[in-house]
Design a protein that fits this description.
heterodimer; A: 220 residues; alpha/beta; six-stranded mixed sheet; four-stranded antiparallel sheet; 8 helices; 10 strands; B: mainly alpha; two-stranded antiparallel sheet; 9 helices
């Protein structure tokens, strides 16, 4: 059990007196794509933010990449290897141009300028988006923004991907494109989604968050 | 990674944005402190020349000048009434003074010269490039990032406003001059503020997830190229000529 990339040990978290996670256990192993379903407001996004240290558990412990994570310094170490895709791409893309946004993460990881330029080119090419490099992020369509947001996460060369509603608000073509991209990636993933058909295509294992507990669902 | 974007004006676009910003700033300062009619007129002539070279469309230039000149007209109409000097006309107890008119006209010419030169030199740059150029000119990080973030999220905010506004209209809201309207707009603005705050928190969270520790890196690099030499020389020469007209 200790080789899990992400592990929750009896994690409890709440806002005020509302408990969102009640002594939850969770495991995510290499090669897995774990689908996480649950009603609106059931705490799926909160669960993701606990993994990357945007929130801290009130009880229990979060293990990421084999080590317990408690302080901001602990979590800083994992912000490269654990990539998080936000629900609203406008939250994620803040740089003026696509190339700069993709470069933001690698720069923060201390890569050299030459490295960063190579990573940007490679990542955009991987998603077939070379010609987007100099486009202005706020002028992109919703689908394009989502793909660029995926590029910004992949540019950090993560081992684990946390995806918050990756297909929400996309048209059919963009949704298909996202599914293809995700299926082609080797990383372990935790995918939050309401889109059952999407999870059927992508998830290797499924769980559901209900009244603070994680329930195991039958494999698709 | 990428270089100066081309939007309009083939000649000026090849010139380093940093040079354009410095030249525009120096010109504005000189034009603003100038007092002699010859200097002021020469500045206007330079600005017109610059605009002609910039290749901007005439309509665009006029649109940018319009708001300045509404203010200038007001100045020309009112300033002579308040200042002394020989009266060139009177309307009842009000005297229209020569001195005031001269001052108001000087201000109008200076104002137009400055705006024209800014439009010519900076009008074809997009805000993003201006932000980067400012950063390379050692303007504090906080200020340039404020500028770039504003540009980035202005449109998001505008769309949020439009969605809220549309939703209000769909529920039969018509703005009128009454308490209900003011209260509704109050709620709308309050909601925009709350949402902006929420969004800024999500943006910071997303940035932290990508390893942000308070430092930004810019990809853009500007290069001082051969095209910049004639521009720099022309700018230096013109500014020196203006200074000579004013002080010698």
């Amino acid at each position: 059990m200790n080789d899990a990339l992400v592990r929750f040990d009896q994690v409890t978290f709440g806002y005020g007196d509302r408990t969102v996670l009640d002594a939850c256990d969770l495991n995510l192993h290499a090669g897995e794509r774990l689908g996480l379903a649950g009603a609106n407001g059931s705490g799926k996004t909160t669960l993701l933010s606990l993994i990357v240290g945007l929130h801290r558990p009130q009880h229990g412990q979060v293990f990421v990449l084999g080590r317990p994570r408690q302080s901001e310094a602990d979590f800083r170490e994992i912000r490269g290897p654990v990539g998080m895709l936000f629900q609203d791409s406008d939250d994620q893309l803040f740089s003026p141009t696509v190339a700069e946004d993709v470069a933001f993460g690698p720069f923060n990881l201390g890569r050299s300028r030459a490295d960063v330029e190579a990573i940007v080119a490679r990542t955009l090419a991987q998603l077939g988006m070379q010609e987007y490099a100099d486009r202005v992020t706020y002028k992109l369509s919703g689908g394009e923004k989502r793909l660029v947001a995926i590029a910004t996460v992949l540019a950090m060369e993560p081992e684990v991907l946390l995806l918050d509603e990756p297909t929400a608000g996309l048209d059919e073509a963009a949704r298909q494109r996202v599914i293809e991209i995700l299926l082609g990636l080797p990383q372990a993933m935790l995918i939050v989604s309401h889109d059952r058909d999407f999870l059927d295509h992508t998830a290797t294992r499924r769980t559901r968050l209900e009244r603070g507990r994680l329930l195991t669902l039958p494999a698709p | 990674m990428h270089h100066v974007p081309r939007s309009s004006g083939p000649l000026l676009d090849r010139i380093d944005p940093r040079g354009r910003i410095v030249a525009a700033l120096a010109f504005s300062l000189l034009a603003a402190v100038a007092n002699r009619p010859a200097t002021v007129l020469a500045a206007l002539a330079l600005a017109v020349l610059g605009t002609a070279i910039s290749g901007l469309r005439f309509g665009t230039v006029l649109r940018r000048l319009a708001p300045v000149n509404v203010f200038m007209l007001l100045l020309i109409a009112l300033m002579p009434l308040a200042s002394g000097g020989r009266a060139i006309g009177s309307l009842g107890p009000l005297h229209y003074g020569e001195e005031g008119l001269r001052l108001a006209l000087t201000i109008a010419v200076k104002g137009n010269a400055i705006v024209l030169m800014l439009v010519a030199l900076l009008g074809s740059l997009d805000v993003t490039t201006v932000g980067h150029a400012l950063n390379h000119l050692r303007v504090p990080d906080k200020l340039t990032h404020l500028l770039l973030f504003t540009v980035r999220y202005l449109d998001v905010l505008r769309r949020e406003y439009e969605r809220l506004n549309a939703a209000m209209r769909l529920r039969g809201f018509h703005p009128r001059a009454n308490g209900h309207t003011y209260r509704t707009y109050g709620h709308l603005i309050g909601m925009l503020l709350v949402r902006s705050l929420d969004r800024s928190e999500r943006v910071v969270a997303a940035m932290k997830c990508r390893g942000f520790r308070g430092h930004f890196y810019l990809l853009d690099h500007f290069h001082f190229s051969r095209c910049d030499v004639p521009f720099a020389l022309a700018a230096l020469f013109s500014l020196a000529a203006l200074a000579w007209l004013e002080w010698l």
